[in-house]
Amino acid sequence: MSGETDLWTVGVILGLTLMTLVTRCFFLISSKPWTLPAWVLRGLQYAPIAALGAVVLPEIVMTQGQLINTLKDARIFGALTAIAVFYWRHSVLWTMLAGSAVYLPLHIFLKW
After folding, report:
1. Is the dihedral of CA 88, 89, 92, 96 positive or negative?
2. Measured distance CA(56)–CA(79) in Å, rounded
3. Which of 76, 58, 54 is nearest to 67 (CA)?
4. Contacts of the segment 45-54: beta carbons below 8 A, 24+ positions apart
5. Residues 21, 23, 25: CA angle, nearest 5 degrees
6. Is the Cβ–Cβ distance between 100 and 71 less than 8 Å?
7. 109: phi then psi, degrees, rounded to nearest 5
8. Does 2 have pLDDT greater than 80?
9. What tens digit of pLDDT does each residue of 78-101 get?
């Protein structure tokens, strides 16, 4: 490796930078105000919970890319406890505390 950057790499970086800038600023460079259709606004209401589910659920039910095949897993009990406490208390703080209070002893002391 000579430590030099070739022209192709610089071109790709500049092209990706330009594409990112244009796509992120697309709504700002328009001269007219934008209004989204009602169906888009309704769909955007579900985006945070869908993203959260896409990140959290695989972490609970999978390990090493495989579905867990035993109930001897602290994540399952921590998640179920957190869900129950959330429906009971409607508090994110109590949800995190309860889920952690079940998960950590099972994981640390019982090595689940």
Report:
1. negative
2. 10
3. 58
4. none
5. 65
6. no
7. -85, -40
8. no
9. 999 999 999 999 999 999 999 999
